[in-house]
Amino acid sequence: MKCVTCREPAIIDIRRHNANFCAEHFLEQCRRQVVKAIDEFEMIAPGERALVAVSGGKDSLAVWDLLTELGYDADGLYLGLGIGEYSDVSGRHARDFAAARGLKLLEVDLPERFGYDIPTGARAARRAPCSACGLSKRHLFDAVAVEEGYDVLVTGHNLDDEAAVLFGNTLHWHTEYLGRQLPVLAERDGFPRKVKPLVRLTEREMAAYCVVRGIDYLVDECPMAAGNRHLTYKEALNDIEKASPGAKHSFYFGFLARAAERFADEAETDREGLRACPTCGAPTTAETCAFCRLVERAGGARPDPSTATAVPVELGPTRAGAR
User: Would residue 92 count as lying in a domain?
Assistant: First the structure.
């Protein structure tokens, strides 16, 4: 197996491109795909400050690494979710990554700051653990990005993630979600701009990227994710991809090119009537936002909009580079 670029021994085959790459040219391919996604969807402009949602897993650490390699001003944000040893290990990976590269990492510890963890919060609120976790992460990522003055919030969603979510939303015709399933969600009404620079790269490629770059990441799946339908959709699409390489890419990018606009109005309608939550100030269509209701049901400390959300953890000087 030879590298398509230099004909040296290849370390990975990418069947949807019908190409093999050596380590050097594989990294180059990953950077090229991220640059293409950023440019095509106008994700991050020169001089903008980016906040990367960091979990300690391969995707979030890879996208943070790629952005800093490309010269972007990117800090990280880690949320301690209180999921036992899993959270302890994930936090350690995030801190070690930042420390080794002299990057700035912000942290919010959910149990310490708000008085509940995901397992107990989910039970108290009668929510599925993934639902309580997703709600908490979305709220706090948005809040910190806005409060700390970042221009853009970056997540590590890859092509596999986006194709699986699209598959589920299409199966159940969640049209309001289909209207928002885009690589970029513009800032508005108290929400930061959200971008997904890894949409042109797969989960397998991100794992390989971390191995080649020497990035130590959390391998284990979250113990609370058992039975998550998202994982089932991923497995189904993996089977399709084996039989038809490039199917995930065609499915997702075909949707963006040919169908996404059809659902834009429903997504807009779903966000009408937004107002500030009286407790925390976050945008909501309800009397009180879903996050504050979750905190209250879990018996935690309700957010105070007058205080900062994130505690900065300075791990050496922030990496300098072209903006």
Answer: yes
Any bridge partners for residue 21, and if so which? Answer: 12
Whether 29 is covered by a domain: the verdict is no
Per residue in 305-322, pLDDT (tens digit) is 554 455 554 443 333 333
**In the chain, how many domains are there?**
1
Pairing state between β 193-195 and 275-276: unpaired
Please tell me the total number of residues recorded for the chain in this structure.
323
Instruction: Convert the pLDDT of each residue in 138-194 to its tens digit.
Output: 999 999 999 999 999 999 999 999 999 999 999 999 998 999 999 999 998 789 999
Q: Could you tell me the residue range of the domain that residue 225 belongs to?
A: 39-314
170: CATH = 3.40.50.620
Nearest to 138 by CA among 194, 183, 85: 194
Cβ atoms of 238 and 202 within 8 Å: the answer is no
Tell me the whole-structure pTM to 2 decimals. Answer: 0.91
